[in-house]
Amino acid sequence: MYVNPRWRRRLLWTVGAVGAVGVLAVGAAGWYYSGLVIDPVHTPEYPLEVTAVRGDEVTLKGGADTASPGTYGLTWADGNALLGPAVASDAGTVTRKVARVLRGDLRPGVRAYLDRWLWGHAEPSAAGVPYTDVTVPSALGGFPAWRTEGTSPTWVIAVHGRNANPAEALRVLPVFHSLGMPVLGITYRNDVGAPASPDGKLHLGATEWEDVAAAIAYARSHGATGVVLYGWSMGGGIVPMTVRSLPDAPIRGMILDSPVIDWRAPIALGARQMGVPGFLVSVGEWVVERRTGLSFDDLDQVRHARDFKTPALIFVDADDATVPVEPALAFAKARPDLVTLVRTTGGGHTGSWNADPARYERELRSFVSSL
Q1: H/E/C letters for each residue in 194-249?
Q2: CA dihedral 351, 352, 353, 355 (to 10 degrees)
Q3: Spatial CA neighbour of 112 closest among 192, 41, 51, 36
């Protein structure tokens, strides 16, 4: 069939233009999605609304976890309260007991969030533990931190999760204080008040481990002969990277709570929750690697499970809707000689303590005593 050369050129040009627009659109979407993974965000969110306060009960509207069993805080812009169990739920609201209002005015109309840390962005004194503000020196500059009192030569270094802060460790401070173990609650690059990374992006543990290394050096220079690294969420991914990168450091053990053992899993889960097409997840991961220089294969601790020699205590919760538990289970299965696995239900992401504080603290004491 004869095709006019002029029309052929127009067709080829149109196909090429459409293809180019498609590539640009996919690239732009991948760039946007990559930013959701590696851009630091420090703006607090308050998804819950207080609709009623009656005596020692508060009714909350919104959120997906307000009925979670266990012990939680309720934190709003200028206040904080400790909550007891849920006592009723109806038509999108949940009513919980209020154990104590610590500060601020708990009233209808307040916007808040369910606080697994209990005390919001507080200091160790909120948990009744004496502490000192310190600065951890590093090649990037000084990192703000705090250090609790203790006489043990083994320190705990607490590594918080993505876009969080050292207050994430407050729940467990009384345990280590009772054992005489100092806790160093650190910040790392791109935290509020801390030095930024050279590119201003999160590297998901690929470079943040260097800040934990600086904290280990600080602890040793102040009398520590050994350390236990304790990480939550992304911090639970930074800790294994530190252990792998410092094979000769005196790291006695690692404690991981809802850890990111393989970053591909939470990225894929987040994409499904947002309705992002599967092919864009791969594009986004590729863009993340190009923008930061990190390698998802290198961050996959299951792939490197045989490299570990350090005992580990790992907490996972079956209702974690942020970080899938399967990689942590695979890591534990690969290294049963090193890993003590504790599984809880109902606590959600980093909520194993909240679901069952007594059991959680027993496991902490048993693990630390065994090191």
Answers
A1: CCCCCCCCCCCCCCCHHHHHHHHHHHHHCCCCEEEEEEECCHHHHHHHHHHHCCCC
A2: 90
A3: 51
SS3 325: coil
Rounded distance between C-alpha atoms, residue 13 and residue 16, angstroms:
5
Domains and CATH numbers, the chain: 48-115 (2.40.10), 124-263+299-370 (3.40.50.1820)
CA 142, CA 140: separation in Å to the nearest integer? 7
- Residue 43's SS3 state is coil
Mean per-residue pLDDT pooled into runs of 10, the chain (371 residues): 47 41 49 84 93 96 90 95 93 94 96 95 95 98 98 98 96 98 98 97 98 98 98 98 98 98 95 85 91 97 98 98 97 98 96 97 97 93
CB 75 within 8 A of CB 113: yes
Of how many residues is the chain composed? 371
- Containing 292, the helix (H) or strand (E) segment is helix 278-292
Tokens coding 220:
């040793």
Query: Roughly how many angstroms between the first and final C-alpha of the chain, as a whole number?
Result: 81
Q: What contacts 105, CB < 8 A, 6 or more positions away? A: 79
Q: What is the pTM of this model?
A: 0.91
